[in-house]
Amino acid sequence: MSAQPHSYAADDPETALKYAIQHIRGDDRAQIVEGVIEQVVPTWDHEHVTDLIREQIGPTLRKLGCRAGAGNLDLPGSPNWYVPDLAVVPRELAKGGDALVPDQTLLIAEVTSESNGDTDRIAKRRRYAEYGAPLYLLVDRQERVCLLFSEPGQLGYTRTDGPVPFGTPVHLPEPFGLDLDTSEF
Predict the structure, then answer these.
(1) Is residue 175 part of a domain?
(2) 18-39: per-residue pLDDT in tens?
(3) Is 15 helix (H, G, I), strand (E, B) or coil?
(4) Is the Cα torsion angle 104, 62, 136, 151 positive or negative in sign?
């Protein structure tokens, strides 16, 4: 029995591209950054850092009624469809199968890789601010620092805490109200 192709008619290229990215066959995940399709293939050391963050914020997530994961983020009206390393969202939003938008998150964390560090440092930082993500944590493994961006606006984040060298705690403000241990990053 052969697989039936998806049939879909889109009125605009953005919708068609975002539909296509969600229907890539196999286990591959992909994102669209400024119109360029990128395969998402994290390495174990990359996942190690993401898990360390998840473990530390876990008790606070339960108190807040939130979930953390790498679900899809749509940026409507732009050629962008992101798969963040970690996004914290209210539990009720995590139950749906649809993509969320950055302003529905409480925190987005990206961990840089050699191959796409500038994407996280420049493009994603700008777009997350533009789309209202309240907190953006950038773990820059090449520079061995963390930066926390807050107070988003159309022209970018208006507040930056850092760069904080690995080994120095990074304070996540309310609703988290905790210091993130970066010594194992």
Answers:
(1) yes
(2) 766 665 665 567 777 887 777 7
(3) helix
(4) positive
